[in-house]
Design a protein that fits this description.
Elements: E1 4-8, E2 13-15, H1 19-35, E3 51-55, E4 61-65, E5 68-74, E6 77-82, H2 87-96, H3 105-108, H4 116-134, E7 139-147, E8 153-154, H5 156-164, E9 170-178, H6 182-195, H7 202-214, H8 238-250, E10 263-268, H9 270-285, E11 298-299, E12 306-307, E13 311-313, E14 318-322, H10 332-344, E15 349-356, E16 368-370, E17 373-381, H11 388-406
Parallel strand pairs: 1-6, 14-15, 15-17
Antiparallel strand pairs: 2-4, 3-4, 5-6, 5-10, 7-9, 8-9, 11-12, 13-14, 16-17
Length: about 425
């Protein structure tokens, strides 16, 4: 069995690699970064590479996977990238993001040795098998072909060329009613990807192979297929198509081009965590306080730039930011960003929500005053004894108390 190493996202980890393995990692990181924009929620610019591998003075290699989790398979080694917070909290926020179909987090954590790639592939195969049991949707598609008899409309010039070249055939355009449509092509390509991944268990790959064979009348993935979403008629496609996109985008296959240099599955985490946390806050604070689920950008006068805080309460009366970090002290950049967001919305109150692995309740970071703006930290507790549900409820409770004190019900901020 291929040796395996487990690392945490965004942490620099020394590894005994060869120069060729390091090159594989860097090429995979650049390839994945070129497609990772499809997973970004707010359209923010991403790094040129998700993976950084550099030789260090000790003769080993420092490997950093930037804000992404999953699994990387290179020659002679499998690298499992775990989230920076415990897996139960990660899955809880992932599900709350609504950017992925619902799943049972308890079942997801049944096997501690499973990687995120194994889990996502399993969820996809389960959903795709249910889809096939229900039946595939057929659609009309335009076909261009040379036939011995007329079908559809004749292409006169092409047919004439065939005749003068000695071929008694007709160049036709016609509609075919079959399974070859964008949704089914997406499912088939994802099944092919799972079946050919050496990082997955044989049983799962066999199930994927069977799925691929059952879709043998479906063509290869085409440009634009991944942008198609199921309509009302195809509502039961939503879960399998969503998981299929995760499979393909997480491997940089959108669509498959060229030969991969490493088998990888990496999903960027900050936007997913931010969206999940914001949804939990929005649900918990409603109906007393309104938190925008998709905060609108605020233009900055005199520039083409915009302010994009993660949290916008009551149409901008209070702002906040989510940091997918476990800080031990204030980051100057994070603090200044929160102040700029608050100043841009003309509010004296800003929040920064972060993660914390202490055994207490409440952020260990101090509240900071910058001019007329007060920045208040809030922690999502991930330490022992804090279940995801309890951590979310505690965070909602503390943010609610803060809002009650900062913004009177009249909508006029307290001094």
């Amino acid at each position: 069995m291929m040796p395996s190493l487990t690392i945490s996202e965004s942490s620099k980890t020394p590894m005994a690699l060869t120069a060729a393995q390091c090159d594989e990692l860097n090429r995979a990181g650049r390839r994945l970064a070129s497609t990772a924009t499809q997973l970004d929620v707010d359209g923010s610019e991403i790094e040129a590479s998700l993976i950084d591998c550099q030789r260090n003075p000790q003769g080993t290699y420092d490997v950093t996977v930037r804000d992404a989790v999953g699994v990387i398979g290179i020659t002679g080694l499998t690298i499992v990238v775990q989230p920076k917070i415990p897996m139960d909290h990660f899955f809880h926020l992932l599900e709350a993001s609504t950017l992925v179909p619902r799943f049972d987090a308890v079942d997801a954590l049944a096997d501690p040795d499973e990687s995120l790639w194994e889990l996502v592939a399993t969820w996809f195969i389960d959903a795709a098998e249910q889809l096939l049991r229900r039946g595939l949707i057929k659609d009309y598609r335009e076909v261009h072909d040379v036939l011995p008899v007329v079908r559809g409309s004749i292409q006169p010039m092409r047919t004439a060329r065939l005749f003068y070249s000695g071929r008694v055939e007709v160049d036709c355009r016609f509609e075919e009613f079959d399974n070859d449509n964008p949704l089914n092509r997406t499912i088939r390509e994802a099944a092919r990807s799972v079946s050919s991944s050496p990082l997955l268990k044989k049983q799962l790959r066999r199930r994927a192979t069977v799925l691929t064979r059952m879709l043998d009348d479906v063509g290869p993935l085409q440009r634009g297929d991944l942008s198609v979403t199921p309509d009302r008629r195809a509502a039961y496609y939503r879960a399998p198509v969503a998981w299929a996109k995760w499979v393909l985008e997480g491997q940089g296959l959108a669509p498959r081009t060229g030969t991969r240099t490493a088998w990888t599955f990496l999903i960027r985490t900050p936007d997913l965590i931010e969206t999940g946390l914001r949804n939990i806050l929005a649900d918990g604070l409603a109906p007393d306080w309104k938190l925008a689920r998709k905060p609108p950008p605020k233009p900055m006068a005199g520039t083409t730039m915009t302010l994009n805080p993660d949290l916008v309460f009551e149409s901008g009366l209070v702002t906040g930011d989510v940091k997918y970090k476990l800080p031990t002290q204030w980051s100057r950049a994070d603090l200044f960003q929160a102040v700029v967001f608050a100043a841009g919305h003309r509010t004296g109150h800003a929040a920064v929500v972060h993660f914390q692995q202490s055994c207490g309740v409440g952020s260990h970071l101090p509240t900071v005053g910058v001019g007329d703006i007060t920045v208040t930290p809030f922690a999502w507790e991930v330490g022992d004894g804090f279940t995801p549900t309890f951590a979310g409820a505690e965070l909602v409770s503390r943010v609610r108390s803060w809002l009650d004190a900062a913004v009177p019900k009249s909508g006029v901020q307290a001094a």
